[in-house]
Structures are given as structure tokens and as C-alpha cells.
Amino acid sequence: MNARPWPRTDIGTVLLHWSVAGATVVLLLTGLRITSDDVGHEWLRALDGVLMSNDLWTRHILAAQVLTAAAVGYAIYLPASRLTGRIHVDRLRLKGLFGTSQTRWSCLNALICWGFLIAASGLIVTGWLAYVGAPEPVLDLHLWCTWAVVAFVPLHLYALLRLGGFRHLARMFRPRRLAAQEGDLDLAVVVSELLAEREAARGVQGHGHSQGQGQGQARPSAASAAARGTERKR
After folding, report:
1. How far apart are CA 152 and CA 39, in angstroms?
2. Closest CA to 110 of 130, 90, 126, 128
3. For residues 97 and 107, is the Cβ–Cβ distance under 8 A?
């Protein structure tokens, strides 16, 4: 018996994904080290063993440029390659929260992705504003966006594991040319799942209705037979 092949995904998504991941890691390792010198954030010095210590600003600005370019790339690539269904959220997809496990986690993962996109956008905007001399509140918002990004990463990984286990995560290590993927979970999955559930519900209702009609028809037939028997006796 042949083993089921491991899923793959398009190379554009893989390149953009790892660009965002790599840039985010460098931004965290440099940004938190820079922040640890500020009053009220000295506790971050406990992480000096894992944070970067050399060329902090150079690496931080370079990673910010990579993240900005990757964000713009995502905004262009997803619509151009017709892959927006991966993160598309509307009323139909939200109904998937009350459907099967697959539709529920597909919807939750899309919501998590949007949360990450909002936090990362805030991180980029406030970061560049801070670079040109924005006031203290902007720096505080920049730090809050940083914590939001950190929180969304494990949430995203957990959602992917619930969707398809390690096989689903392995797609990011197995690029291929852009094509329709069986493993890609998009709006079509949600629609098909909801329609299947609706048809199943209709089938159950229709079966019960047909049984009721059959019993209703059987009763008049029995009554007619009894009446005919009585007339014959007369």
C-alpha cells in the first residue's frame, strides 16, 4: 500500500513566509535588546543570553526593510495568484465556526492570520515613525504590536496543527510551482463542507417526512379495506 504523499504549497508563499519569519525573528532579537536600555524595561536584560548585542540598529533597520518588502509582496502576490481565499473571512466562513472541525479551524486560522497582519502592519508603521522621531506614545504602541506578533505565532502554529498535523506544517518546506493544491484550505472547503451538512440535514428531514406520508397513506388504505369487508358481509 503506497503512503499518502506529503502536501506541498506554491513557492511564492514559501519565499514570502520565510522572509517574514526571518525578518520578524531579527526584529525581536534586536528590538527587545534596544528596549531593555529604556527606563521601565530593564527586566528584558534577563534575555541578554538570547538577544543580539552587536550592530543592533543596522540589523534592526535591515530586518524592518525586509519585513516591509515582504508585506507589500504579500499584498500583491495573494490577489495576483488568486490565493486570497486562504485568509478570506465573510459571513459564510464565519458559519464554519459551528461546522466540522476542519471548517472551524480553517476559520480560526484565517482570523489569526488577520490578527497577525494587523499587528505586523502596526509594527511596521510605528517602527518607521519611531525612526523619524515620533513621540513616546508611538514607541509604546510599537512595543504592544511587538507583543501581539509574539502571541500570534504560537496561535498560528497550533491552528495549523489542528488543521492537518505536521503534514500541514511540512508544506512550508516543500515548495512547488503555483498550482491548485489539494492541501490548501480556502473558501471552497468551507462552502463544500457547509453544503454537505445542509444536504445531509435535508436528507434526514425528507426521510422523516416520507415516512410520515407513508404511514398516513397506509392508514386510509387499511380503513378502506375494513369498510369493503363490512359491505361484503352485508
Report:
1. 27
2. 90
3. yes
9-184 architecture in CATH?
Up-down Bundle (1.20)
86 and 63 in contact (C-beta within 8 Å)? no
Residue 73, C-beta contacts closer than 8 angstroms, at least 6 positions apart: 16, 19
What's the sign of the alpha-carbon dihedral 106, 191, 201, 203? negative
CB 112 within 8 A of CB 153: no
* Inter-CA distances, 30 with 36, 57, 95, Å: 10, 7, 41
pLDDT tens column, 119-176: 999 999 999 999 998 898 999 999 999 999 999 999 999 999 998 888 888 888 888 8
H helix and E strand count, the chain: 6, 2
What does the alpha-carbon distance between residue 135 and residue 129 come to, in Å, rounded to a whole number? 9
State the pLDDT at residue 72: 96
